[in-house]
Design brief:
The chain is mostly helical. The chain has ten helices and no strands.
């Protein structure tokens, strides 16, 4: 019985946490980070202020959670690079995952919040970079280094290569969405953009014939 109650309470706490972060993202986008109070977020999320403060004692802590959770995969963990040995398969897996990640509405909202508040609150940009983009970027860089060490690719500058690959995908999936409210490419179009980015990487870095 105790274990069952514990599971129930954990699920309830997670539901409240998701309601808080979702409401906060919407309010930050509509009213600005500085113009949104924790009390207002609690009201919008349908939780008490004490419940919110228990999970997020400060607005900065709440924004950190939004950034971290936005950049995680559905499993709730940071991305794990695929094993080295098949450059095409590895890049395709990473590209599909990245396109899905940056194509989600929450990611667009997060970037818009940061860009809007950057002149007044540069620390929000640092959070977005250090807690979100940098760890994700490093996972791709480490994958390319592993392929280089395995001999399946010649990548003398894995940092530059990771920038190239992710940039090609984000340029189709994310950045138009920042400016065009009706930008919503079909899954087949997004997959094609990823496939083309993979082909470009293979042409530049693969050491031998690819499947």
């Amino acid at each position: 019985m105790t274990e069952g109650l514990s599971d129930h309470h954990r699920r309830l706490a997670q539901q409240k946490r998701e309601a808080i972060t979702s409401s906060a993202t919407t309010l930050f986008l509509d009213h600005g980070y500085a113009g949104t109070s924790l009390a207002r977020i609690a009201e919008a999320a349908g939780v008490s202020k004490s419940t919110l403060f228990k999970q997020f004692p400060t607005k900065a802590a709440l924004f950190e959670a939004i950034v971290s959770e936005s950049w995680k995969q559905g499993s709730g963990h940071a991305p794990t690079p695929p094993p080295a040995g098949d450059l095409r398969a590895g890049l395709t897996a990473i590209g599909r995952r990245y396109s899905k990640l940056v194509g989600q509405p929450g990611m667009t909202a997060l970037f818009r919040i940061v860009i809007a508040e950057l002149p007044r609150l540069p620390e929000l940009g640092r959070m977005q970079f250090q807690l979100g983009k940098l760890p994700y970027f490093d996972s791709v860089r480490l994958y390319l280094q592993a392929e280089h060490e395995a001999g399946t690719a010649r990548v003398p500058d894995a940092e530059s290569a990771a920038n190239q690959f992710l940039g090609m995908i984000a340029n189709f999936v994310l950045w138009p969405r920042m400016l065009l409210t009706d930008w919503n490419p079909a899954a087949a179009e997004t997959d094609h953009a990823v496939d083309e980015a993979v082909e470009t990487m293979l042409a530049r870095y693969a050491t031998g014939p690819q499947k």
